[in-house]
Amino acid sequence: MPKKRAKQRKVNNLYLTFKFVSLFLALSLFAYLVLSLTNIPNLVAAYTSQLALKVFFNLNSALILNGQFPLIQTPNLLAQIVDLCSGKIELAVMFGIIFASFEKRMGYRVKGFLLGVLVMLAFNAIRIATTIYYFDVGALEWTAALHDFLFRMFLIIVIVTYYAIWYYYDLPRKASKRSST
User: Fold this and answer.
1) How far is 37 from 142, CA to CA, in rounded Å?
2) Block means of pLDDT (10 residues each) for the chain, length 181 residues?
3) I want to staple 128 with a disulfide (CB 3.0 to 4.6 A). Which of 41, 49, 61, 155 is the partner?
């Protein structure tokens, strides 16, 4: 009998994993398609990055809104905030992973996603501002590597860390509710 339960548990876990991954992929794709229909994420990234340049680096910049993509002009650089800079992919991934967590209450997922958006926007603005600042001061060699690889990895690490904290934050509260009833 225990072997049968173990096998049933494996099948159930496999089904839940398949359901989560399928839902995650579908929701992420949907979110990315919706975000791709608008230029708002690019504008938000540009405005928040301009603010981060001033706050963290005391670097004055001008925001230019001509054309499809916003530009940030510093004394020595003109940076274009394109779709990959906007955080659209990261926001879509966060949307997919949080809303695919079907075992969580919908209200908890909505609050988690909204807070996650704020976290991602803050980290993305710091990422862009740091890149612009170091390009502006002329540290081109390592800034290119920083921009192309390290910061992308950093944003993925932020998503995974945020999701883990969000997901496991709810577990102790669920356990205490079960034990009190």
Assistant:
1) 34
2) 71 88 97 95 96 96 92 94 90 96 94 96 91 85 75 82 92 57 53
3) 49
